[in-house]
Amino acid sequence: MTANTIAINQLMDKFDGHHSVWLFGYGSLIYKADFPYLQRRPASIAGWTRRFWQGSHDHRGTPEAPGRVVTLIEEAGAICHGMAYLITPEVFTHLDHREKNGYLRLAIPITFEDGEVEGLVYIATPDNIAFLGAASEQDIAAHIARSAGPSGPNSDYLNHLASALRELGRHDQHVFDIERHLAALRAAPSE
Ligand code: SIN
């Protein structure tokens, strides 16, 4: 599959005719809402886990030296906590551009503390060409430490995400382990 998903996402007609749609964010969409929204609420989705397994060619790395950003991986019993936004359909033009490096819109049940709605999430599936896949948290931290792209250092993405999860009161072992390894790398005397 091509790394640029804009055309595929524009064919998504599931919510055509709706005045507003709930979008679930689990990565930079938690801490960087650079789009208009009608409501913003902490939420979760079931059966998916957050992993720094997606390559970033356009935000936190380059095509030659991709950074690492999060995607969702299916895992029975897992719960992924994040932030949901109620948006109008026009906002998808901006979001499709922002998430164009491998992410596809997927319809998904979104859970709030007082109920459930059907909404959308952007997921970079393992068949997209920017997908990097599994690595140890230590190796991911080293990869993030040396990566940067047009949106800034890859480490900012990780640190902003870790802080946003703490603000939400949510523990994510994978994210916090990478943060710890990155801090240790930064603290190590350079040769
Ligand atoms: C998301 O935040 O929901 C998608 C991944 C990202 O943009 O970091």
From TrEMBL:
Q: Which UniProt keywords apply?
A: Lyase, Transferase
**Lyase recorded as keyword:** yes
**Record carries keyword S-adenosyl-L-methionine:** no
Task: Name any GO cellular component annotation.
Answer: cytoplasm
Note the superkingdom of the native organism: Bacteria
Q: Which Gene3D superfamilies match?
A: Gamma-glutamyl cyclotransferase-like (3.10.490.10)
Look up the EC number in the record and give it. Answer: 4.3.2.7
According to its UniProt entry, one GO biological process term is: glutathione catabolic process
Alphabetized GO MF terms: glutathione specific gamma-glutamylcyclotransferase activity; transferase activity
- The name on file for this protein is glutathione-specific gamma-glutamylcyclotransferase
